[in-house]
Amino acid sequence: MEYGSDFHWIEPNQELVSNCISKNPYTLFGIGRFAIGSLISQMVKEAGWKRIWMPSYFCPLITAYIKSLISVSSYPIIPGKEIKVSDLLIKQGEVLFVNNLFGINQKPDYSVYQGKITVIEDHTHDPYSDWSCTSQADWCFASLRKTIPLPDGGVLWSPAGHTLPDAPDLTIEHRLSSLSKFSAMLAKERYLNGKIILKQLIRDLFISGENGYNNASENSGISAISRHSWNHFPVQKWRTVRKHNYHYLARLLKKLDGLEIFCNNHIKNVVPFSVVILLKDSKSRDSIRKTLISKNIYPSVLWDLAEDEHNLPENIKFSQRMLSIHCDMRYSRRDMDYIYEQIKSALTKM
Ligand SMILES: Cc1ncc(COP(=O)(O)O)c(C=O)c1O
Q1: DSSP character for 170?
Q2: pTM for this structure?
Q3: Residue 99: CB within 6 Å of ligand 1?
Q4: Are residues 201 and 106 in the same domain?
Q5: Residues whose CB is less than 8 angstroms from the CB of residue 329 and which lie 6 or more positions away in sequence, other chains included
Q6: Containing H/E element for 136?
Q7: Is residue 336 part of a domain?
Q8: Do 132 and 257 share a domain, yes or no?
Q9: How much distance in Å is there from the Cα of 124 to the middle of ligand 1?
Q10: Which pLDDT score, from 0 to 100, does residue 87 have?
Q11: Same domain, 324 and 279
Q12: How many other C-beta atoms can be found within 10 angstroms of the C-beta atom of residue 246?
């Protein structure tokens, strides 16, 4: 068994599973970045967009990508705290980017800006949350492979009913990267079922696909595999499993000294993306992570922020102390028990 890291391939259902995104017009892209990138590039050209406000706590790779398209201002976000945008000095015509970080936030109050600014919401960490399904933002997008077992995919939709950019063609470059990911997912599925496949091969295929996405020279459409599968999965059922696993593991971990459960007092109806734990400092975090990896548990760091003046000191601290533990539909309570035991034992070895 393996805990965390990329999804293995899970066979989609024959039938379409209706969901709140696909009920309305949407456009599919190769990855989340191509969705937001295509929108920004088009609106810079056609609507004169000049500035986008990005949360201070966000994936540096994606912020850098957006900076290559438009001027970026940063606004402060403290993970786990309410997203407050009302006192920002956003000018008429500017764009506000809001992220539902770890799927635990509620829709912010945008009322002071009514009709004056454009709002884009990122629902990657829980595409089918209540917030996402009732959004009134100008545009919303989500990267699909973070919560659904797909090799690629990004979806863009507009609750406000604005025009959507056309889907770009599927490039050869993206076809190769997504095929590398897909092969990795198939190989991982076989590996988990006891077939003898080199773990390093699976890892190399995942990395090669992800590097392909990170170094893409142009935006692409989605792969055929993901296009035909993305709305054939029982996503609401999976959200319920994730929610139960979350609460089960968080309750166990709460008993331990030496770590904090990040934001355990969730608003009703939110389904966290993962169980985020905070260790004393970066040294303890790295040591726990190393021990967990040796036990086949692969937590992520979301995200690794540079220790420089561009990042808020409290955001850097959070980034250095955090580990995101997967608790999604791949896992049962027994798996959560295993993860708990391993974290407990890793803490005693420190
Ligand atoms: C919250 C969030 N938004 C957007 C993205 C961008 O998605 P993609 O990697 O599909 O471009 C990511 C990717 O890590 C993400 O974590």
Answers
A1: P
A2: 0.97
A3: yes
A4: no
A5: 237, 238, 241, 242
A6: none
A7: yes
A8: no
A9: 7
A10: 87
A11: yes
A12: 25
